[in-house]
Amino acid sequence: MKVGFGCDHTAIDLKKELMEYMTEKGYECVDYGAYDAKVRVDYPDQGQKVEKGVLICGTGIGISLAANKVPGIRAAVCSEPYSAEMTVRHNNAQIIAFGARVVGNELAKKILDAFFGATFEGGRHAERVQKICNIEAKYNK
Length: 141
Ligand code: RB5
Fold this sequence. Notes:
Blueprint: E1 2-7, H1 12-24, E2 28-31, H2 43-47, E3 53-57, H3 61-67, E4 75-77, H4 81-89, E5 95-99, H5 105-116, H6 124-139
Parallel strand pairs: 1-2, 1-3, 3-5, 4-5
């Protein structure tokens, strides 16, 4: 599976470590930047680059807010594995987001394990996700 990784300047080292972790597990990791911790970048610019994968900023909030403005994207901020698993099983989220200033590196790996190990359950959850899509369509007219 191809997994995109995007971050702002707060999360360069964490992103690098997580990309190595996921590559070792057999995922094809694509780096959408940022690349230099000394160069500040704006999380909205980074948040719109990834369609399936991982977004990291200081809190995970700003970058996920930006990602969720891209039509069809469901990006979930999760600071622990249970929510990361459930946002795939019930929300069919394509993007997991978290904060480099919030979660430690080992917890971030557990969050990725939970997110990428989960499968969307469909059924009544598909109907609810469709309702989210309907809201988007209503306001994008
Ligand atoms: C950058 O200082 C910080 O605002 C950003 O990484 C993020 O936490 C915003 O939501």
